[in-house]
Design goal:
globular; eight-stranded antiparallel beta barrel; single chain; 16% helix; 182 residues; alpha+beta
């Protein structure tokens, strides 16, 4: 009986220990801010959403961004109406920051390059950009994340919708405050 209890205790100990060693430090938000700007007919058109999902893994410096297109707003009724009809039409960006690991102790702001893949239904597009991560201290350990990158509108087939696009789309993730999720 004592031998069985010892075996059960050891199994429980190693199971709990293995769960803790696999835990990853993940930070995120469901209300990140994204600005997507492009020049159309010599005017800047900006679509904004405050519903960007941002997930950042501190252990391996990977990230995931999720955007429901219907959450974007431009301030132009006809475009906003078309965007509202895109409910559940999501775009996903998965990638890696240009650093090995994100430090969790107090440190100066980190600037980095980022690489990833933008997934849109069946299409996948390589993305390269820059970012900035700054730690803030509050009740929960958190950080502020900024990212920006450029995308050719032809790669997203936007030239089918807007005939007079000039230059690339500028995509900015603005001051997204990330809090610990685990």
């Amino acid at each position: 009986m004592k031998n069985k209890l010892t075996k059960v205790a050891l199994v429980l100990f190693f199971t709990i220990f293995s769960l803790n060693t696999n835990a990853q430090e993940v930070y995120g938000t469901d209300n990140g801010i994204i600005h997507i700007s492009v020049v159309v007919n010599d005017s800047i058109l900006t679509a904004v959403s405050k519903e960007l999902v941002v997930i950042l893994n501190y252990d391996d410096a990977t990230f995931k961004l999720l955007l429901d297109r219907s959450s974007l707003r431009t301030g132009i009724d006809s475009i906003d109406d078309a965007l509202r009809k895109l409910k559940y039409n999501k775009v996903e960006l998965n990638g890696r920051l240009g650093i090995d690991q994100i430090r969790t102790v107090k440190h100066p702001p980190q600037d980095f390059e980022l690489n990833g893949f933008l997934k849109d239904k069946n299409d996948e597009l390589a993305i390269v950009g820059r970012g900035h991560l700054e730690h803030i201290f509050g009740e929960f350990y958190s950080c502020i994340l900024n990212m920006n990158f450029y995308v050719n509108p032809e790669d997203l087939k936007l030239d089918n919708y807007f005939q007079q696009i000039t230059g690339d789309l500028k995509i900015e993730i603005i001051q997204s405050v990330l809090k610990r999720r685990n």
